[in-house]
Specification:
heterodimer, A: about 325 residues, alpha/beta, Rossmann fold, nine-stranded mixed beta sheet, 17 strands, about 30% helix, about 25% strand, B: about 260 residues, binds flavin-adenine dinucleotide, binds adenosine monophosphate
């Protein structure tokens, strides 16, 4: 028995979720292998070894120079045929899930996405994420080779030095797979994003209009934070979807999330629950956001936010 | 352009998702139903593509008879045709679902001609298996990219945009192809009264689903562990501002 971990990287930059997948692999089996796709990932071998990879299989191919779901998925499928691991683990990220779905389709095997708990055996018993984390599912996985992805932030990455013997693995990729390799890329501008900001000032339907977001912008600006919103807001066209927090938006993890005029529907909550502290500002004491938050102010956000801005300015001495 | 879009009927829960006593389903006694936001956007994208390039759009679902509601909703915003693959339970496993959808697409294409584009959601709202679209694409030997937030047709190629951690990626995918769409690609329109009336008359074709059970089998649904916190009330109205700013200071956010 051996476990193969599909290493996630972007042009050689290792995804932190990969180290979690290695931790999950070690909890399943002592014989842990890692698979890196593309020459850019060769440099990761030492770090993979430090996190428990006994063997690192490196695949080099022109079609793997950049990300492409079909080329990556086919390479994983061929690695599985060649190495015959009893299980393959990937990161429960958009890329990880996409590559595993591709590999599973090509191998005609089941694939279980976003697993939180794995109990091995002939048939595996798994607890996995549903509804973006609002609900869980216990399921069984029956397959000759078990393909799963591991939820982010569930297994803790830890050093566990192993040999990390490097082996090269050759794959035969059909040139037609070039059709889904990234053709162009526009790099993201540097700066705080919704996903990384230390403070998020969120606005919901209670804000009332696009214009009424101005005070939220001002407060976020004063404190080096960014503005987020609920789906009610994006649906009304008040803000762009890139600001949406939740199951079908962005998952945030700021030091403080100020949720203003947001009721706290479960699909919004799953996107916000990783915040260290949550402060709800709402007229309704019974709102889910209020009862679940660490702190709350009951009142009209249109009066409360300007008062907070004044107080911040006063203390900053301006 | 002929476009097919695959949607799934799911409950629309509010503050909490309750589970039935037998653990087999979401308790929907007091819930409405919807399609996932990703798929609503896929439907809107199909309608827009046909508006721009001519042709015809079709919506397809595998689900209970009640999923007729989601098919007609798609029709009410402008989708031309609807197909239901009726099943008795609420859900089939992802391999079985994909096999049934792929088989149905082959039948539809044999009868009416190939689809230039098949659209899926990035993942279903409830089960989130992240694979049905990929499996269908593979079965049909067509390229697929997921997570798409922009579609531009350029002759026989679709330029599809996706947002990654590092930036925006563009894929140039030859048609016929399959795309998994994410919310944010567009702002779905609301149905007009006229659209709603017209959708009542749309004929929903029924195709009996064919597919073998796959290797993933649900045993039971479970509640996620809830974080319980005692909410500390900082006050009422604008008078609470000093307490809020104390908190900002305490958290090191007042720099
Ligand atoms: C599959 C699925 C996925 C979804 N994904 C997401 C997602 O990613 N993100 C998301 O946000 N939603 C998502 N939703 C939608 C979600 O269910 C809710 O509909 C949405 O979050 C509600 O937004 P809201 O809280 O702004 O609006 P409402 O629920 O209408 O709440 C408005 C709140 O504002 C308060 N309020 C009103 N006026 C004031 C005032 N003057 N001052 C202070 N408070 C005031 C009210 O008391 C109320 O609590 C999803 C739904 C489904 C079915
Ligand atoms: N029962 C279904 N009927 C039609 N389409 C489906 C069904 N289940 C999943 N899909 C489609 O496949 C996508 C991915 O689903 P999943 O693999 O469950 O995450 C969804 O967004 C839908 O577009």
């Amino acid at each position: 028995m051996s476990v193969l971990v599909v290493v996630e990287h972007d042009r050689g930059t290792l995804s932190p979720a990969t180290l979690e997948a290695l931790a999950a692999a070690r909890s399943i089996d002592t014989d842990v292998h890692a698979l890196t796709l593309g020459a850019a990932a060769d440099a990761a071998a030492a770090e993979l070894a430090a996190h428990g990879a006994g063997t690192v299989h490196q695949v080099h191919h022109d079609l793997l120079a950049d990300y492409g779901p079909e080329a990556w998925g086919e390479a994983v499928a061929q690695a599985v045929r060649a190495l015959q691991p009893s299980a393959v683990l990937a990161c429960g990220t958009d890329r990880g899930n996409e590559v595993m779905a591709q590999a599973a389709a090509r191998l005609d095997l089941p694939f279980v996405a976003n697993c939180n708990e794995i109990t091995t055996g002939d048939t595996w018993t798994i607890v996995r994420v549903r509804w973006g984390g609002s609900l869980l599912e216990q399921c069984t996985l029956t397959a000759s080779t078990k393909l799963v992805s591991v939820s982010h932030h569930v297994f803790e990455a830890a050093e566990a030095p192993a040999a990390g013997a490097v082996q090269s693995l050759s794959v035969d990729l059909d040139p037609s797979l070039a059709r889904t390799v990234v053709a162009e890329r526009v790099e993201r501008a540097a700066g705080v994003t919704l996903a990384t900001a230390p403070l998020v000032v969120g606005g919901g339907r209670g804000v009332g209009s696009a214009e009424a977001f101005a005070p939220l912008e001002e407060l976020a600006g004063l404190l080096g934070g960014v503005v987020g919103c609920s789906r009610a807001v994006t649906n009304n066209g008040w803000r762009n979807h890139t600001d949406q927090v939740g199951q079908t938006g962005t998952r945030i993890a700021p030091d403080l999330y100020m949720a203003c005029g947001i009721s706290g529907a479960i699909q919004h909550w799953v996107g916000a629950m990783a915040s260290k502290k949550i402060l709800a500002i709402n007229t309704d004491t019974e709102a889910n956001m209020v009862t679940k938050a660490d702190y709350a102010v009951i009142g009209d956000l249109h009066k409360v936010i300007p008062a907070i801005i004044d107080e911040v300015r006063r203390r900053k001495g301006g | 352009m002929r476009v097919l879009v695959c949607v799934k009927r799911v409950p629309a829960p509010g503050a909490k998702i309750n589970i039935t006593a037998d653990g087999q389903a979401v308790d929907t006694a007091y819930l409405a139903f919807t399609t996932s936001p990703h798929e609503e956007c896929a439907v809107e994208a199909a309608v827009q593509l046909v508006e721009q390039h001519g042709g015809e759009s079709t919506v397809l679902t595998l689900g209970p008879a009640e999923a007729d509601e989601q098919l007609r909703y798609a029709a009410s915003i402008g989708v031309n045709k609807a197909v239901l693959l009726p099943i008795d339970t609420t859900d089939w496993d992802p391999q079985r679902t994909a096999a049934a959808i792929a088989a149905a697409i082959r039948d539809l294409e044999a009868a009416d001609g190939a689809f230039d584009l098949v659209l899926f959601g990035n993942e279903s709202a409830d089960s989130g298996n992240f694979q049905v679209g990929v499996r269908v694409a593979h079965a049909l030997s067509r390229p697929i990219v997921n997570g798409i937030k922009g579609i531009e047709v350029q002759g026989d190629t679709i330029r599809a945009k996706r947002e990654g951690d590092a930036g925006v990626e563009v894929y140039a995918v030859p048609t016929p192809c399959v795309l998994g769409v994410k919310e944010g690609i567009n702002l779905p329109r609301y149905p007009t009264l006229k659209g709603r009336l017209a959708s009542k008359k749309v004929e929903v074709a029924q195709v009996s689903p064919q597919g073998e059970a796959g290797g993933q089998q649900m045993i039971t649904l479970l509640q996620a562990a809830e974080q319980v916190s005692q909410t500390i009330m900082l006050g009422n109205g604008p008078e609470a501002a000093p307490a809020v700013v104390d908190l900002l200071e305490e958290l090191g956010l007042l720099k």
